[in-house]
Amino acid sequence: MPRTFVWHPTRGPKQTGKNELTTGKVRIKQVRSGIGHSETMKLTLKAIGLRHHQAEVIKQDSPALRGQLKKVRHLVEVEPVED
């Protein structure tokens, strides 16, 4: 997906990956802390299952998960999982 609105121009990725759903699962790793970010971002990280910095979870890919990841895309890294 192309870069959309970023509040601070020097933060966040220049581009995010394509918004193509995979048929499998994705590995989500938190690479930046939620400290200093809005409460909704912290709650989104908690809803994904990321409790602390450097935590990893594996989730089934879905449109709902993609929406959550788009909200916190500057705090996480996402990669597909090969079975």
Keywords:
83 residues, Ribosomal Protein L30, Chain: A, single chain, three-stranded antiparallel beta sheet
Helix content: 10-25%
Low-confidence stretches: none
Shape: globular
> Order of strands side by side in the largest beta sheet?
2-1-3
Q: Report the count of strand segments.
A: 3
Radius of gyration: 12 Å
User: With helices defined by DSSP (H or I, 4 residues minimum), what is the helix count?
Assistant: 2
The whole-number mean of residue pLDDT values reads: 83
Separation of termini?
Answer: 25 Å
Derived from helix and strand composition plus strand pairing, the structural class reads alpha+beta
Largest sheet: 3 strands, antiparallel
Question: What does it look like?
Answer:
This protein has helices at 39-48, 63-71; strands at 25-30, 56-60, 76-80. With 83 residues, the protein is of the alpha+beta class. It has a domain at 34-80: Ribosomal protein L30/L7 (Ribosomal Protein L30, Chain: A), CATH 3.30.1390. Helix 1 (39-48) packs antiparallel against helix 2. The chain starts with 24 loop residues before the first strand and ends with a strand. The model has no long low-confidence stretch (mean pLDDT 83).
